[in-house]
Queue: 2 jobs
Job 1
Amino acid sequence: MIGQTRINPEVFCRQLVLFVAAVVLPAISLAQTVVRGPYLQTATPTSIIVKWRTDVAADSVVGYAPAGSAPATRSNAVATTEHEVTLSGLSPDTLYNYTIGTSSITLAGGDLNANGDGEHFFTTPPVAGTDKPTRVWIIGDSGTADANAAAVRDAYKGFTGARATDVWLMLGDNAYANGTDSQYQAAVFNMYPQMLRQVPVWSALGNHDAIDMIFSPPGAYPQIFSFPTAGEAGGIPSGSENYYSFNYGNIHFISLDSTIAANRTAGSSMWSWLASDLAANNQRWTIAFWHHPHYSKGSHDSDAEIALIEMRENALPLLESHGVDLVLAGHSHSFERSVLIDGHYGDSISLTPAMVLNGGDGRESGDGAYIKPGPAGTPNEGAVHAIVGSSGKTEAGGSLNHPVMAESMLTLGSMVLDVSGSRLDAVFLDSSGTIRDEFTIIKSPPKVVNIDIDPWSESNEIFPASSRLIPVGILGMSTAAGDSMDFDVTEINPASLRLGIGKAPINAGPWFFDADEDSQGDAVYGFNTADSGIFCGDTEVSVVGETFAGDEFVGSDAINTSDCVDEGCHP
Ligand SMILES: [Fe+2]
């Protein structure tokens, strides 16, 4: 009979078994669960690393998109449980929503076409050298995986509220007692899941982190973290994840290894790298961090222990000769914070009055902020040293009376920095959310210069629209109000010049001539409009730079709609 089919029960059963084996079982085995992360590493203005762990091996796919934009994806076809995907080609200072998953399923992050799930996002750092108000959260010796660490975390969460954290530092001993993978799961991944998926975390190597590296090489620490070794986040390539540097806006961060003896002893490659890195640094602020405290009378004594002594003797002279502003360490389970000092490399009893540049409390409401009057990088203008080793526990035993300290206390807590332009405000926040210490460092503000931006107007016909150049004139020795410029435009270092959004000039220039016809020499530079973010119509544009002598300057000008009418508005 045509069109009629009889079901043979035996054949049906055999085919059902084959169907289950071919389709259902693989689908079950592919049903992954995220058991760690996602978390973010080595953020640069244009790239970031996304890492996560699954219970079952599969390929890796990260979807990402700025709010309202079409998603892009980056994938890795190799099946693994330890997923690591580097996103590149990102825009600086931009919030991206992201998802993680496989080529067949999204595991976390929601729908990027609907701006994600509101939980999985990150903001790329601004271009190095750009001023952006920056919040930094610092925890040290946080690895107790207990209610103490949770209270410190929650106190910061309450303090910062809707203010996003830009930079997150861990000062080592992040997972007690041996820095194993399971201890990291409890003390880090289960403790800070929300922070980890939104804020890239940077760390210094602690002695407890190193135990797993010694007894189960390579150990959990280097497998969990992916730090820059090739200068990809700024600074000089270190060739090691144990010590490295990175920039965030106008801050240069340096992480040093105080734990491995071969690294911290005099003459090691870490110190030659540090010398090169500091020499190349031209950010306004320099913040260094490591684990072992070079000044402490807490649960460790910096007069008695070799790691502490070697860091003081080998790191500080280099750092101070390049104008370091703040040095952070942990290991002593207390909070200790110095006055503004310089040149103190011996035991605590060797401190002399000449080494104390400002012995006040550093508070604008008290003895006044610490002032560093020279340009960025001026040697030996003093630094503040803070030991933040009480983010997971306190430990009594020390005398807490190191003579450099303005404050010493046996108190659970964390440190918060707000760096904005020429000022750095720091607080120590205890585990109940109370501010227990605060201080401010103020550096010499940049000089204000007059600039003039005149895109393609009749007066700039030497720059045809097809060249996509926008001329920016820095006007020499103007008498206009607010012009504190006291250098000649020929003293400007062209390599330092940036539009406020971080774009360098594209011409070999400058052209020196009296652009504003006031009988004073001016310097005119060309910037590319194609990717500058400059639009016609009352756009405020700022320019930052330095003289060859290191004097910083800033100027700004508005592009008026009338400036653009001759050639029409450019992109
Ligand atoms: Fe330690």
Job 2
Amino acid sequence: MCDHGRLIVRVGVVSLALALAAAGCRSGKSISMGFSAGGAGNGGLDTAALRSDESSGVGGDKAGGPLFRFGLIADCQYHKEPGTGRKYSLSDRKLAECVNDFNSRDLAFVCHLGDFIDRDFESFDVVGPIFDRLQAKTYHVIGNHDYSVVDERKAEVPAVLGLDKTYYDFAVQGIRFVVLDGTDVSFHPYAEGTPEKQAAKRYYDDNNIQLPTWNGALGDAQLAWLKRALAGAQERGERVILFCHFPAFPENIHNLWNAEAVMNLIEPYDCVIAYINGHNHHGNYGRRAGIHYVTLKAMVDTETNSYAVVDVFDDRLEVAGFGRESRRVLPFR
Ligand SMILES: [Zn+2]
């Protein structure tokens, strides 16, 4: 990061410290879970496994705590049917637990990283109102399963998730969050017989894609937009965190069809800190060219919940994992 950027970050620390002091400061609050939900007789959710790491709590850091923090959820993937493996029908309850926990914290925003539902448009009616109880600002990344609705309703999906555009960006205290749409070129958003569906089939065949049909790619217009977004961030001295539903790295069958092209595009921009995604329910981690690639575990898979709170410091991210999710410290390059 250039000196200009560091200055912005430092000014941010001072401003935040002053704001917290003026507000009576919740910075002594522990990040430990401290809530009781689920458990025997209450749906059987295994909350005993919920945990966090005290060291990532505000006030525990020698630099005086994080600049800000945000919440992340991957693959809530709700459906009313219980499922034989994944616990689709428990996701509304796990999401509610997560929302209650997030509402007890000072979060700059909460982002769901795609596959909010497993299938059927009506599923949005169950989990949408729960997510809307979040007091923090909220964002959605679009995932393949979000389009697992009847053809006639596919076009309504972005709007039901509150999205005017399926790829977009926003900034918080010198960090630019760039949200990507990995279903851009894919089989998911488009009804049978449409030119877009035909184009996706051509793309898949012409590029001899070996990855599954349930992934997708960023199209040319989105790649050009991403390049402009990164150039703008670099010029303003901002750091960048990318969100996408699909992973790009390490190599994995869940990855974007054009993961290599996306990585080649972002790597020259040393403002990029991390690329965070869902879709691979097991979670994953890798680092390439200084960029952290973090796959968060899915909320849906087991009776144990899974979500994360990310603390943003001026030299690192600290990911506090809850339930199945891991704790990670991600230093900036
Ligand atoms: Zn997915």
